[in-house]
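Quick question: what would this complex look like in 3D?
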Amino acid sequence: MTSFKTELQAIAVPPMFAFEPTLENFSIVQERSDYMKYAINSVITSFGATFLALVIAVPSAYSMAFFPTKRTKDILLWMLSTKMLPAVGVLMPIYLLTKGAGLLDNVLSLIIIFTMINLPIIMWMLFTYFKEIPKEILEACRMDGATTLGELRHVVMPLSWGGITSTGLLSIVLCWNEAFWSINLTSADAGTLTALIASYSSPEGLFWAKLSAASTLACAPIVVFGWFCQKQLVQGLTFGAVK
Amino acid sequence: MSSLEITKLHKEFEEFHAIRGVDLHIKKGEFTVFVGPSGCGKSTLLRLIAGLENVSSGSIKLDGEDITEVAAANRGLAMVFQSYALYPHMSVAENMSFALKLANVDQDTIDAKVNEAADILQLGNLLDRKPKALSGGQRQRVAIGRAIVRHPSVFLFDEPLSNLDASLRVQMRQELSELHQRLKATMIYVTHDQVEAMTLADKVVILNAGQIEQVGSPLEVYYNPESRFVAEFIGTPKMSFLPVNSEVKQLAMKSDGGDKRQLAQGHWLGVRPEFITIEPGGQLEGTVSLVERLGAETLVYITYKDSHQLAARVESLSAINVGDHVNFSISLDRVHSFDKDGRRISPNVTDILIGKN
């Protein structure tokens, strides 16, 4: 709502509920920085990272789910434990690595980092979905003459399609909302929408109404996207609950 | 149709030696049944043949060609699983044609083969259904159909009937038997049900703790069990065992075949229920502890010398009741004796029976 107020109205105490809506914040935001550029960066990073993560995670989850070894459980726990590390803790090394690779303010570095961040969760989700598939079906498939890739393509992927898509959607949402790394590693060229929002909370002052406008613009696409995929998402998350 | 030669096969899991040196020859077109108690390694042996488990040592040859290291996908064998393992997202027709599609067979041939298999298994009107819309028996037929369309060199069945109810199991058992007659294919069948083993097999392989106890035709293993284990495992009710004491020894000495057997303290006599006769003049005495009336026959369990239970098969309408003291005799020419280690030391009963006739 604040995004439709003027700056003065936005900081008024007590808060105003009746006001004349204005679109001026949106046009100011658009004037100051090109919304589309940030939006496209967000799309590229979240979709790119999700795609890359799935490409890595599907085969690994397959092998962990169907050919477990003594260490599989430990590895899964270890992967999850990396999520417990505060991101700030590795800010310095990663910043330096990115700088050294010449990838500061570059979408590629964000894609790689987002992939890394979400990989454990994606692996875990895919692992649990794959676990639901009876082992015999894969063995039958192997007896029928399928290669490992054939097994993945004809049996594993179709049977866990709901799970894979909902994992992918979740990953896209997580990447889209990821702020820490995009703020720290990008500025004008590769900035995502979260970086755009953050730029309104600057040393020159806090612009509530413009900040809200930018937030609305940043959230809108993913909300709409989520709305359309809702059915898929719910189906995926409850996959296997009812056989 | 192929022959299979297994030599010195071993399979060790991390903490468990599942198969301990199996040697076996399966002839072309033979219906071989692996039977044994749970955990004896029969399914593992089948999975080793299928290529779903890696062999620890030893070799498996198919038609003389070593396939020990060949991947399951390239062995050309077909397997029917206990849980059917149908592809839930494919229709019946797609399930059956999957292997052919992977092998890039043209659509006309696929259709012809699927229809042929559907005819054999009476699945014609179910081809468009998904597995979840089928009953257990139909699913099992689809699983068999999936194997048939490929014309595999060997069919492998892993307890295919154990998820079905009793009457359906009998029907499917007969259908499998007919299928074997019709296809004349080499089939290997794993079961823990000795009735399935006896009715289906050309050759029964009895496994115990990862080793073969005995290989033979159903009647061979029934009449000439080589060990106490086989004697107890094959036959319902189980063969009864009597310790060799002075009374039994005396009896045995008096009978025709008695002197042929080495009867010593610590040995055991094994008697099938049909070779125990309850009659007033019987030399042995016991108390009836249980009577089971099955309709066509009645089973009487007699406690001998307070500790040994013997099963006897008597006439259906017999008036015997629990608690009765009875005299009984044993057809000693059809009795087996086993030494302390459970190996049979008496000659083949079938030899004696055939000699008599």
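Answer marked as accepted. The longest helix of chain A spans residues 35-66.
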